[in-house]
Amino acid sequence: MLNRRELMGFALGLGAGAAFWPTPSDAASMTYDQAVRSTWRPLQATPRDRELVRYASLAANSHNTQPWIFSAAGNEVTIAPDFGRRCPAVDPDDHHIFASLGCAAENLSHAAAALGLHATPALVDDKVIIGLEPAAPGRSPLFEAIGARQSTRAKYDGRSVSSEALRLLEAAGREPGTSMIIITDRSRISTVTDYVLQGNSVQMRDRAFMDELKSWLRFSEADAVATMDGLFSRSSGNPAVPAWLARPLLRMLFAEAGENKKYHEHIESSAGVAVFVSEANDRAHWVAAGRACQRFGLQATALGLKYAFINQPVEVPALRSQFASFLGIGGRRADIVVRFGTGPELPKSLRRPPEQIMREAG
User: Fold this and answer.
1) Got the DSSP string for 211-266?
2) What is the third-level CATH fold of 4-150?
3) What pLDDT is recorded for position 221?
4) Interval 253-268: pLDDT, tens
5) Over the range 340-362, which residues count as b (16 or more CB within 10 Å of their CB) and which as e?
6) 3-state SS, one letter per residue, for 288-332
7) Which of 131, 186, 296, 350 could staple 228 via S-S, CB 3.0–4.6 A?
């Protein structure tokens, strides 16, 4: 339960619209549920820039590394890459970092609209600079979905998605410089599954990849709250266990055959697969692909659907060109692969508070 000091801070933060985050001593005693409520609480009007950053940080990002640094000055918010949080084994060219910046920019744009601001993002010198101009406030279904969206790494129920829902997903996934391919044919989904399993096997046999992944795993609620980042076990449908017990047994519990079986069941239980493709292989297009993917995820959430990333075919270089041939996209880059369908709600992941990810503009 919240102690009196935490309860007063929480009430002030939610009731008066003031910023709330516990002191370091309070954070050490926070429960996971308290941290979730603080992370995912509804958008407040003030303080404006802090709230825009908080809502931007709820976006999807690779390994929940949250590889971004925000700054705000006047009517401009800047999102810069945080290369100190890069994952060179899985993302050697930093593609996922810039796609993550695009996801955050998309969230911020919808949050800004809800506060009466029109947002115009642009990549300048490897930073996403978002200009803000006054506009009529508007809370769209995609904005309302921000607080509910999650990457749901679980088995879905196998139901198909209506043609109207597919139309809305296709519209949401459009962004200049990118395209999206939706696959619902079962035989083609099975081929995607084969690519995912091949990629997963390659990655799980790569010690550098496994060491890197392990560094971002959070096995217990205490571990997750201590860092407010990373891949929490319960958010992936696994039980929470003490890190001292889980880490020595990781190789036994996290085995290639078992993970491949899980991926096979998860993909085959999905209604479809969406692949986001860049027209050019550069950072501006990676950001655009991230925006398209985030908008797709928000639209899926608004429709009551779940989605999850299955990026192995685009992360393993030896498979990427083969996967591109299967998709028929020529020399263009397949950026992001997700599955979607109707699935369960899982525990939310956490995000670092704005105070930890904002810097003075300069």
Assistant:
1) HHHHHTEE-SHHHHHHHS-SEEGGGGT-----HHHHTTTHHHHS-HHHHHHHHHHH
2) NADH Oxidase (3.40.109)
3) 94
4) 788 999 999 999 999 9
5) bbbbeebbbbbbbbbeebbeeee
6) HHHHHHHHHHHHHHHCCCEEEECCHHHHCHHHHHHHHHHHCCCCC
7) 350
The CA-to-CA distance between both ends of the chain, in Å, stands at 41
pLDDT score, position 6: 37
pLDDT at 12 over 60: no
63: exposed, middle or buried (Cβ count in 10 Å: 0-12, 13-18, 19+): buried
Q: Among positive and negative, which fits the CA dihedral 339, 340, 341, 346?
A: positive
Q: Which two tokens stand for residue 267?
A: 């993909």
Q: CA torsion angle for 227, 286, 300, 269 (degrees, to 10)? A: -80
Cα–Cα distance measured from residue 148 to residue 111, given in angstroms and rounded to the nearest whole number: 14
Sign of the dihedral through C-alpha 339, 344, 345, 350: negative
Are 4-150 and 163-341 equal in CATH topology?
yes
In sequence order, what are the residues at sequence separation of 6 or more whose Cβ sits closer than 8 angstroms to the Cβ of residue 157? 269, 341, 342, 343
Residue 315 has pLDDT above 80, yes or no: yes
pLDDT at residue 23 tops 70: no
Token look-up 């990676």 returns 286
- From the list 132, 49, 134, the residue with the least C-alpha distance to 360 is 49
Percent pLDDT > 70 in the chain is: 92
Residue 102 and residue 96: Cα distance in Å, rounded?
Answer: 10
The tokens for 40 are 């995912």
Collapsing DSSP states into helix, strand and coil, what is residue 120?
A: strand
Rounded alpha-carbon distances, angstroms, from residue 259 to 99, 179, 199, 236: 25, 30, 12, 12
Percent of the chain past pLDDT 90, that is, above it, reads 85
Q: Are strands 217-218 and 231-232 parallel, antiparallel or unpaired?
A: parallel
Sorted by where each begins, the domain ranges of the chain are 4-150, 163-341
pTM of the model: 0.92
Is pLDDT above 60 for 17? no
